[in-house]
Amino acid sequence: MPSRAQTLAEAARLRAAFEAAGAVPVETPVLQPADLLLDLYGEDIRARAYVTSDALRGEQMLRPDFTVPVVQMHMAEGAEPARYTYSGEVFRRQEHDEDRANEYVQVGYEVFDRADPAASDAEVFALFSGLLSPLGLRAATGDIGLLMAAVAGLNTTDRRKTALMRHIWRPRRFRALLDRFSGRTPPPATRTALLNGDSPDLDAPEIGLRSRAEVAERIEVLREDAAAAPISNTEMTALDALLEVRETAPFAIQQLSDIAVDLPAIRTAVERLEARVEALDARGVDVENLDFEASYGRTQMEYYDGFVFGFYAEGRPDLPPIASGGRYDALTQRLGQGARIPAVGGVMRPGLMLELQEGTA
Q: Residue 174 sits in which domain range?
């Protein structure tokens, strides 16, 4: 295993490469306000973050990543366009695998630029690909924006679309909702009773924090949902096909263009993908052999809303991604009080890079 000194030296080398590409070095506090991260990710973040508190600042988290504080910094005071780089420790709780590090060094590169998002995507990916090329890693790419566009364009209620959007990053829950909203699986027995007009016993003892009025309002929402028309078989078949797209980039574009016939809402996202592939090709990336998975990034990249990528050591399935990143335009709006700028970036793990180098030495 590489020593800490070796890891920090490798981090400095990578950071220097990002500075040479035009990035300004920045630092962020190790302690981050928990309320902001909880607002962005919900209570799920507690399962993978170290939480502490003090009397003056309230609940704090040891930095789980750099992207949120860098975006917050840029939206408060950054000029445009901007490129940043950083390096330092991040902290992740590990409750199921004691061999996985709970503290490790990340080095990152972030681009905030309105001019040409496809070119920015290609810039970040090509830069990472070049720095990682000696390791012979497999690159995986995807686009969360395709599924988000598909959900937004469904012929169903706004409430159902909101629920599906909220669970895009939880594939099992997303699938369960899809199956219920399409009628593939029946609603729970309690909801069937409500649909048939049965009323709950509102004279029963009150348990929990919801008032009777809130309970009654929730019941009415469930009744409205149960009465809504199911998502059509045509849309469901197209969604299934979208989620199963796993091809090299050119063939993926062909498949997605065909799917767009039944899901026209994804056409703009497919056009963005085409522009990105052209920009990658212009930067020398071998797009003919570049893997694309429509579902990639749905389990660990919650703030991404467009292009996503990761680099993996195929001979080491025990290792997490050596590098990962993507586009997070919506995050800039949430942290910018309505202001928004296209943004894309990624992180590398120099410790894992050195570990792989040692294994091939």
A: 157-231
